[in-house]
Write a structure and sequence with these properties.
Elements lengths: L11 H6 L1 H19 L8 E12 L8 E3 L2 H16 L20 E3 L6 E5 L8 H4 L2 H14 L5 E4 L14 E2 L24 H13 L5 E4 L37 E4 L3 H4 L4 E6 L3 H11 L3 H7 L5 E2 L2 E2 L6 H7 L25 E2 L24 H9 L4 H10 L21 H7 L3 E2 L1 E4 L10 E4 L8 H21 L7 H10 L5 H4 L1 E5 L35 E5 H6 L12 H11 L4 H19 L5 H11 L11 H20 L13 H5 L11
Parallel strand pairs: 2-6, 12-13
Antiparallel strand pairs: 1-2, 1-4, 1-5, 1-9, 3-4, 7-8, 9-15, 10-11, 14-15, 16-17
Bound molecules: glutamic acid and magnesium ion.
Amino acid sequence: MGLLAEGTALDWPDAQKHAHQVREWGIKQLLQIWNKAKHKERDAMLWGDEIEYLVVKYSKDEPKVLLSLRQADILKALANDQELSDKGGCVPALQDLESQRVDPLPVFHPEFGRFMLEATPGKPWGIGFKELLGVETDMKNRRKIAKDHMHPEEYPITLTTFPRLGVPGVFTDPYYPASGSKLRSQFVPDEIANPHIRFPTLAANIRWRRGRKVQVNVPVFHDEKTPNPWKDPTVNYDLHNWPEDDDVRNGAAPDNFIHMDAMAFGMGSCCLQITFQAKNITEGRRMYDQLSPIGPIMLALTAATPIYKGFLADTDVRWNQISRAVDDRTPEELGEKPLKNNRWRIPKSRYASNSTYISTDARLRPEYLDPNLIIDESIKAELLEGGMDDRLATHFAHLFIRDPIVIFNEDLKELDLTKADHFENIQSTNWQHMRFKPPPPGSDIGWRVEFRPMEIQITDFENAAFAVFMVLITRAILSFDLNFYIPIAKVDENMETAHARDAVLANKFWFRKNPFPSRPMRSGGPSRAGSPNASRPPTPFGPVEDEYALMSVDEIINGAQPDADHDFPGLIPIVESYLDSVNVDVQTRCDLSTYLDLIRMRASGELWTAAKWIRQFVAKHPAYKRDSEVTDQITKDLVSAVVEIGEREQEGKGRGWKDLPVPDVGNLLGGFRSTGCGGS
Ligand code: GLU
Ligand code: MG
């Protein structure tokens, strides 16, 4: 979430009147940035990760685990220590860190939910291999520092969602009743959102623009004793506090779906994001395109979201729920009514998979582009006029079809071209699975690309593994000039596929068969199928359909089986091949392999996703009645297991998880040690 400006936030009817002005000014700011920064060169790639946490209140002696709403106090405590350390004072939380890298301190940020925190490293990471190996310790330190600024019974945990969010009754500490004026949710109180005016206004104006509450329906998982049809028993059809309470009487809560009605059900989810700083704009645009088709694969591999509002869902990831939770499209834009007041029918929510490719790469064929792309032609014309090229102008003219949702009155007085606030207003509320980020004005930051689809993992070992893998595959893409282009429509389809229960093993995804440039790879190229790289055809110019095939995640990550009708080498063998091509000492290579092994084993099914582990945990729990319901007791025991895993991880010193008395922990985490070489 972006910086938090202060001011008077406009209600939707007023905000709407100024939407055009904000877009106009945003485009002027963008052109200013673009003209200043288009030739900007940075020496080396930098990167950073973002970890989002839930804060739970958990005690062995209490029957229930609750979400703690003390975000503001925790952030204040963290900021006080930060100030102390800036002044050279002593920071108690830092005294016993294992890490050599105690300075600079990590940075903690607010997130949408008042029960959430976000933490980033104190400074960006370089791509030195030693730095790659520092990220896990840094993540663990962040968690420790966060924990040290909480009450003893509060824990920062990295489940993507809180299983009992929105269940009638008490699920927060302190308790607040639902049905407030901002969210108008049946299930969650307004106090669930960060109180900074940006967040409740965002939620309220999305609802207001849309003309009804958001509708976050996720299919329920049908177990042996789950009735069919299943009616969400938590829905109250008799509520009459707000006009929006009619939504459920008008069919908002269909049979066989868990029904949720507020932004918090989506934006209250936690993810792992990686941002790369490119050498220059050309490299950034290339990274944006090439990482895009990898997005849905990483979503499936990191799947961790099988429970909503106290029920097992039939999907494994958070993505579509967030998409629906911030979907501000009107009935006209959704195609439910003829266009009258709105300009377009818009096929996707503001939170969705990418709709553009932006690289200047000659291998980007027009057939890959989205034929249904909606753009604002006048904005595109203005960008072209300002000197931007067609492809990038198209990208921003697409993002700028959206209205700004939160507008501060104070910002409308005069246009400040040394700032990016109006541009960011639209840019940062386009939550696509990749984000192309121009340099902030007045900073020495370069062009950046954010990789956004991954779900947060329970341990920092896993989070580090996915971060390191993403960095290495990005290095390999640039170093080997790899080509992962497939049509955007196929990436969209993959994003849907990634939702299926156990998609990582059960489903197939569109992927490009031959990622290599026409010239052979330096090292000869890896291939599970064993076919020599030299025999690969150059990038074909034939029908686009011949370029890609349906593959399992195992094939995409580990390479095609010998009997496959393609010989995709696999992303891990590509990374290994990249590591072969650069100088890495034996110990470092071995340490990196621990992370790559986790990814490899996830893809092959040797290890489970968190989604599968959580499902198994529920299924085996003595209190589970095979009726899809995840009770308070099951939730408490699940959180207890997660806390135990986390404490074991914090103990560090190379100890594994296998002997923890947590069911199936070996299937989730294998025999890995929590830091360093020596994987199982
Ligand atoms: N928590 C959101 C997610 O899970 C992302 C919010 C952000 O962009 O920081 O995708
Ligand atoms: Mg965030």
